[in-house]
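Lecture 7 notes: from sequence to structure.
We start with the chain below.
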Amino acid sequence: MEKKEKEMKIKFKEKDNVLQFEEDYKVDILGTEYAIKSKSVKDCPYLNDVDGFADYTTKEIVIARFKIENDSFGNLASYMKKCIRHEIIHSFLAESGLTHNSLESKSWAMNEEMVDYFAHQTPRMFKVFEELGVLE
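Predicted structure tokens for the same chain:
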């Protein structure tokens, strides 16, 4: 009997005019379990300077909780998903051992533009892969 994998999708909730995850999530990245969490700046001051980060030492991906305001993105959930993809790509690079060879922030494995490119284009790439049946 084939084991069915649990379908996991990030769900959001609005609480006190702040968009955050409904719960914390766990994901397997190249055999290593990572926690995916949304945190406030108060709980994680590092989020003052970034919208998210991947910490390969603690195996955590942290995405900022966003206050819903008039000047916010029109679709904050979509932006948070993009941030998750971005940090997952950083995590894959780290678990592949590539961050150890790229200790400078300007080197290719730590390059934010490159990671952003893949975070932005991955859904489109996977759509083409699925259409062609080449994911196996």
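Points to note: The two ends are 20 Å apart (CA to CA). The first helix runs from residue 76 to 95.
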